[in-house]
Write a structure and sequence with these properties.
Blueprint: H1 2-16, H2 25-40, H3 47-71, H4 75-87, H5 92-106, H6 110-118, H7 130-160, H8 167-187, H9 199-226, H10 231-241, H11 251-261, E1 265-267, E2 271-273, H12 282-309
Antiparallel strand pairs: 1-2
């Protein structure tokens, strides 16, 4: 049943994309974070971040438990709602569509492309040239493949190998990951305002993404080989540049992507990844999307095989 639920959740994500914001678990989590953050942010102690994490996790767990108990009344309802909730813990279609959107706009309207990429990155995009818009898009796509899909599904499947009969816990695991990831996105900044409350959420996010990001890097290299991209360079740049980013994890997917495409990804005054062997252009976005799609397919296929035979 778990394999069917996983496949159904992927199908739901690809067809429906995202749930309405009023009932989307991540939006609800974000609202909770915002509520508790206002109460805790003035406490200049790193424990404020731990308390924030515990409060959001506790309330989310209670809400999930209530839903879980309600949907148990009918097996069809249970499978559909369970899959629906699981699908909200990751986002394949939105991840890929966001990159396609920038690619489609960049040739026709540079200002529209700047606006589109501003939703993907935290940097100021108003002054970005075409080269840096493309770079930012590929950086975001390759980095977020871990956050948006690999990590939550990795934990769901790995724990399912040992907890097959504990369906509530199995759903709680990707939910906990999404809570930490959302906390990091909202408060995990190295600024004066968030230095205390964001410290623990940011560290937890680094810990949770440590293994999945490195697993993702392997599948990116394999995918580059299948697509006849430069897989040898993908591996070389991974070894050389993966640690160039301030984040301990994001470089592990950006570096093999840059290497596979023979391009250089640049965030001004922050990092350079890869070699400038080929001029970066809109087609580079298309190639990075193809690389991401195959990475997701291969990763999912291996996990399903594990679920079948273990």
């Amino acid at each position: 049943m778990l394999i069917f639920i996983l496949l159904l959740s992927i199908f739901i994500d690809l067809i429906l994309c995202e749930l309405p914001s009023q009932i989307h678990p991540v939006v609800i989590i974000g609202n909770m974070i915002d509520f508790f953050k206002k109460k805790l942010i003035n406490y200049k102690n790193r424990l404020s971040g731990l308390i924030l994490t515990v409060l959001v996790t506790f309330v989310s767990t209670v809400l999930l438990l209530i839903i879980f108990e309600i949907i148990k009344i009918n097996i069809i309802l249970f499978i559909f709602v369970y899959s629906l909730i699981l699908s909200s813990m990751f986002s394949i279609r939105l991840l890929l569509y966001s990159a396609w959107d920038v690619k489609n706009k960049i040739n026709n309207n540079i200002d529209a492309a700047k606006k589109a990429v501003s939703y993907l990155v935290s940097r100021d995009t108003n002054e970005l040239t075409e080269r840096f818009i493309i770079s930012a898009t590929i950086e975001s796509l390759s980095e977020n493949i871990t956050d948006s899909y690999i990590s939550p599904i990795f934990y769901f499947v790995i724990f399912s190998l040992f907890l097959k009969n504990h369906l509530f816990i199995l759903l709680l695991i990707p939910l906990f990951y999404r809570i930490i990831n959302t906390l990091d996105a909202m408060v995990g900044y190295k600024t004066k305002k968030f230095a205390y409350i964001g410290f623990i959420p940011a560290k937890l996010d680094d810990i949770l993404n440590f293994i999945p990001s490195r697993v993702a890097s392997i599948f990116i290299i394999i995918s580059s080989y299948i697509l006849r991209y430069n897989w040898k360079n993908s591996f070389r740049i991974l070894k050389r540049d993966a640690k160039n980013c301030p984040s301990p994890n994001s470089g592990y997917t950006m570096a093999p992507t840059a290497g596979a495409l023979n391009i250089q990804l640049i965030k001004k005054n922050i990092y350079k990844i890869g070699d400038n062997n080929k001029k970066i252009n809109p087609n580079s976005i298309s190639k990075s999307i193809n690389l991401s799609i195959l990475t997701i397919i291969l990763f999912t296929s291996i996990l399903i095989i594990l679920m079948v035979f273990i």
